[in-house]
TrEMBL record:
<keyword id="KW-0067">ATP-binding</keyword>
<dbReference type="GO" id="GO:0016787">
    <property type="term" value="F:hydrolase activity"/>
</dbReference>
<protein>
    <recommendedName>
        <fullName>Vesicle-fusing ATPase</fullName>
        <ecNumber>3.6.4.6</ecNumber>
    </recommendedName>
</protein>
<keyword id="KW-0931">ER-Golgi transport</keyword>
<dbReference type="GO" id="GO:0016192">
    <property type="term" value="P:vesicle-mediated transport"/>
</dbReference>
<keyword id="KW-0653">Protein transport</keyword>
<keyword id="KW-0963">Cytoplasm</keyword>
<comment type="function">
    <text>Required for vesicle-mediated transport. Catalyzes the fusion of transport vesicles within the Golgi cisternae. Is also required for transport from the endoplasmic reticulum to the Golgi stack. Seems to function as a fusion protein required for the delivery of cargo proteins to all compartments of the Golgi stack independent of vesicle origin.</text>
</comment>
<dbReference type="GO" id="GO:0046872">
    <property type="term" value="F:metal ion binding"/>
</dbReference>
<dbReference type="GO" id="GO:0015031">
    <property type="term" value="P:protein transport"/>
</dbReference>
<keyword id="KW-0460">Magnesium</keyword>
<dbReference type="GO" id="GO:0005524">
    <property type="term" value="F:ATP binding"/>
</dbReference>
<keyword id="KW-0479">Metal-binding</keyword>
<keyword id="KW-0547">Nucleotide-binding</keyword>
<dbReference type="GO" id="GO:0005737">
    <property type="term" value="C:cytoplasm"/>
</dbReference>
<keyword id="KW-0813">Transport</keyword>
<comment type="similarity">
    <text>Belongs to the AAA ATPase family.</text>
</comment>
Amino acid sequence: MGRREYDVSVPCLSAFMIECDIREITYNVRTLKIEDAKKVLQQLNVFSNDGVESAAEALNDIPLKKLYMVVEMAAQGEHGGSAEAIYSGKAKINISHFFECLQNMLRINISTYFRIYYLVIMF
């Protein structure tokens, strides 16, 4: 049998390759301005009119995917299971709970960033 040669440029799961991938990949994601966020929230129809204004201001410069994620978190309610009523229009998201979810999401993103940064500098 002959020898096989493998292409070493194929990504592997070694820590070294992960470190290189983290440093070399940058995603430029367009963020939403207040007016854009307001339009999305109005279409979702999950907040009261006052809630749309407040939430849109808080969501300034946030990517669309994160907007959907925090809305979904808030729609679940404080005790879970209220998303069906929210999305059917029978109830609206409590704006205080929405701000708690937004704060938690931002805190998680920052701690994840620092964990990744720590892993990169360790290798």
